[in-house]
């Protein structure tokens, strides 16, 4: 055992917390990305799952330190070997702690991400988008989460951008919170096939999402379905709207529709952007095996929703001006998260746009929405 590890005692581990909490300049909040109140709340829920039995042979690492190690890893993306100098424990121990604690976080926070269960809950989501895109229920997007080459994986995770990745698929509401999140698909699967293999698409096909029944728009008499918006990586579907392909002249029906759709898709761009800016483990290729990388990404997504919905930590996690400000379908203030992540996408890579022949019904639905927006101008 290294000498610095031999000097680790309960007192030295507690000193880290007492020093951070004693600082008046929100040092503790910056260390774990949340308020002390929410840290204690999380600890009360995950503590029983990660606590280890005390023995006479060694000093047990307290649950509080285990949670702090994990949150610090997610917040900074520092390697386990780097964190061992701060916490005075071996990188092997840190590896086990992060794996166990991420699993515990997923277990206790799993209800932070869930789809609306009935028409009324969907209509509440729609009301937040009604001023921009009526009948819109949320924005869908997917990202390749880049990893270091997995051991003995061959080309299973090798994607078209010549990197190794797993795929994150998400549905986001107006509050930049995830309503659905699926992570772990192999990067080599075609981007078109990823969505068709997802639970969300399966539920959509089986009409088991309990979406509201089609209703006329404010200026029409034709029943229009409630929809999700997406980019050109996704198929056009009666319940999924994507932009008109190609370039269109200013003032045209197609360009006006594309602008409206893009103003809604900003929410999913902000959700991914804020999450990767705050949990910097997502700012570079993840040096873990696919199962562990999936667990880390899901833990980040659940913590994102937990902090966005927290009255104690929302202003710490996303202070005023951190997300894009949208008014009348236009961005009037660019969120400061874009400065935090700088150039590039970090571990996130966009999915490829795919040309498809769309069903006639879906095309008619998109045209009806485009006509509605032109009439409203």
From TrEMBL:
* One term under GO cellular component: nucleus
Keywords in UniProt for this one? Hydrolase, Metal-binding, Nuclease, Nucleus
For this chain, one GO molecular function annotation is:
metal ion binding
* Protein known as: DDE Tnp4 domain-containing protein
Cofactor requirements of the protein? a divalent metal cation
Q: Which PANTHER family match?
A: NUCLEASE HARBI1-LIKE PROTEIN, PTHR22930
Q: Which residues form the signal peptide?
A: none
- Give the family this protein belongs to, as stated in its UniProt record: Belongs to the HARBI1 family.
Q: Subcellular location, in the record's words?
A: Nucleus
Q: Which residues form the DDE Tnp4 domain?
A: 140-305
> Which InterPro entries does the entry link to?
HARBI1-like, HARBI1_dom
